[in-house]
From TrEMBL:
It comes from Planococcus chinensis. GO terms for molecular function: oxidoreductase activity. Residues 313-414 form the UDP-glucose/GDP-mannose dehydrogenase C-terminal domain. Pfam families: UDPG_MGDP_dh, UDPG_MGDP_dh_C, UDPG_MGDP_dh_N. The keyword NAD applies. InterPro entries: 6-PGluconate_DH-like_C_sf (IPR008927), NAD(P)-bd_dom_sf (IPR036291), UDP-Glc/GDP-Man (IPR017476), UDP-Glc/GDP-Man_DH_C (IPR014027), UDP-Glc/GDP-Man_DH_C_sf (IPR036220), UDP-Glc/GDP-Man_DH_dimer (IPR014026), UDP-Glc/GDP-Man_DH_N (IPR001732), UDPglc_DH_bac (IPR028357). Its EC number is 1.1.1.22. It catalyses: UDP-alpha-D-glucose + 2 NAD(+) + H2O = UDP-alpha-D-glucuronate + 2 NADH + 3 H(+). Keywords: NAD, Oxidoreductase. This is UDP-glucose 6-dehydrogenase.
């Protein structure tokens, strides 16, 4: 099938490249000419394992192309995917400016019948409005089908998730549209769930909100574990063995970040609010996350007389490992607060440093390794559980001025920490201090 994709952000690019990989002829459209030129050379604008190689392979066999022109991008296509961003408005609702622009571009340029597939995360009812917008503005007798096909991929494992996903959701009000999208996706071999458009739109928000709820829930349990002397790792393992609960997304830490959970939880609260429904549970999830994100600072304040003038190593900046994405990363809030309290911040991240530089305070100093970051520091805060951090030889922390680790991602086992004269605080587990002979 000949497919055109509007938007080459995370979702659009991965969708385009993987659809080409399973044999479709794909053309990706973006307004950013510089980005398009780079992608024509198979240079991926995002760090995603396996993506560049797959891009190169499909460009070479002419199954994948890039353009800034909607007119040529829509030429002879059977299907157009909308995969543009839906950023957060100030009140938490989803900003549909780019989706509306995509609808306008489709209406102005298509000359034949086409199926429009919505990949962007949009509030319930948006697909119907987009169809209406296109139908009202399109020239000539062109038949438009619209299908909701939300995206569930995770950054860092996007390709794997596409080929080994749990389900593909297809929301359509017509059999014809549903069959077209099912046929496109069939080679992935992933189970397909057919439903109506509004339910498909809701499935995306409800899934992300549920996962965020699991995280905030386990984070609250971890805070209680600390107070009663239980160990969150043992608690999560025991809970996760119950199939009704499931073992995933029970990793306690310093809250969720990224481009989806923070935005989608707030958008769902708004969606409910628009129909006069107070989503109290989800409001709680969002509030718990806010509190959890500053937990390391709270713990640091309990361990030290004052933060001012202290050299603090911040280990990991990306919102999670295996990505250079800094969107809504917990590190942003932590670094901001450290700088506000006049600490000297030395940060390390294996790949997000360049992105971090444009976001974090200019006073932050960047180290090239964990060792360089911690040397001479008064505390090390672990923010992202990169393998480079989890796998480090613990003796490097002995080079700190004060060997104090506050670990927001439970990277090290308590037993291994007991072997070193290092003070170790983590999330929902007892602190390790007994083996430490502190000169303070
Ligand atoms: C998420 C959803 O998983 C995906 O289905 C959706 O399409 C987009 O949003 P992503 O943002 O890439 O994907 O990251 P994910 O791996 O889900 O992690 C999100 C955040 O939750 C990260 O900050 C991570 O550190 C945190 N998290 C995740 C936890 O704190 N504990 C967990 O157990 C799992």
């Amino acid at each position: 099938m000949k497919i055109s994709i509007i938007g080459t952000g995370y979702v659009g690019l991965v969708t385009g490249v993987t659809l080409a990989e399973i044999g479709h002829e794909v053309i990706c459209i973006d307004v950013d000419a510089q980005k398009i030129e780079k992608m024509k050379q198979a240079a991926s604008p995002i760090h995603e394992p396996g993506l560049s190689e797959m891009m190169a392979r499909n460009i070479a066999v002419k199954r994948l192309a890039f353009t800034t022109s909607h007119q040529s991008g829509f030429e002879d296509v059977d299907v157009i995917y909308i995969a543009v961003g839906t950023p957060e408005n100030e009140d938490g609702s989803a900003n549909l400016m780019y989706v509306e622009q995509a609808a306008k571009d489709i209406a102005e340029n298509v000359v034949d019948d086409v199926t429009v597939v919505m990949k962007s995360t949009v509030p319930v009812g948006t697909n119907h409005k987009v169809k209406e917008q296109i139908c009202n503005a399109v020239k000539g007798r062109v038949k438009i089908e619209i299908v909701s096909n939300p995206e569930f991929l995770k950054e860092g494992s996007a390709i794997e998730d596409t080929f080994l996903g749990d389900r593909i959701v297809i929301g359509s009000d017509s059999m014809e549209g549903a069959m077209v999208v099912a046929a496109i996706n069939e080679p992935f071999g992933v189970p397909i769930y057919h439903t109506d458009i509004k339910s498909a739109e809701m499935i995306k928000y409800a899934s992300n909100a549920f996962l965020a709820t699991k995280i905030s829930f386990i984070n609250e349990i971890s805070n209680i574990c600390e107070l009663v002397g239980a160990n969150i790792e043992n608690v999560a393992s025991g809970m996760g063995m119950d199939n009704r609960i499931g073992s995933q997304f029970l990793k306690a830490g310093i809250g969720y970040g990224g481009s989806c959970f923070p935005k989608d939880t707030k958008a769902l609260i708004q969606i409910a609010g628009n129909v006069n429904y107070e989503f109290d549970l989800l409001k709680g999830v969002v509030n718990v996350n806010k509190k959890q994100q500053l937990l390391l600072i709270e713990k640091l304040n309990q361990c030290t007389d004052k933060i001012e003038g202290k050299r603090i190593a911040v280990l990991g900046l990306a919102f999670k490992p295996n990505t250079d994405d800094m969107r809504e990363a917990t590190s942003i809030l932590i670094v901001e607060e450290l700088i506000r309290q006049r600490a000297e911040v030395v940060a390390f991240d294996p790949i997000a440093t360049e992105n971090a530089k444009s976001i974090l305070h200019p006073l932050v100093v960047y180290a090239a390794s964990v060792e360089e970051a911690v040397e001479g520091s008064d505390a090390a805060l672990i923010v992202t559980e990169w393998e480079e951090i989890r796998g480090i030889n613990l003796s490097v922390f002995q080079k700190m001025r004060r060997p104090l680790i506050i670990d927001g991602r439970n990277c090290f086992s308590l037993d291994s920490m007991k072997e070193y004269p290092i003070e170790y605080h983590s999330i929902g587990r007892p602190a390790v201090t007994e083996s430490v002979k502190l000169p303070y």
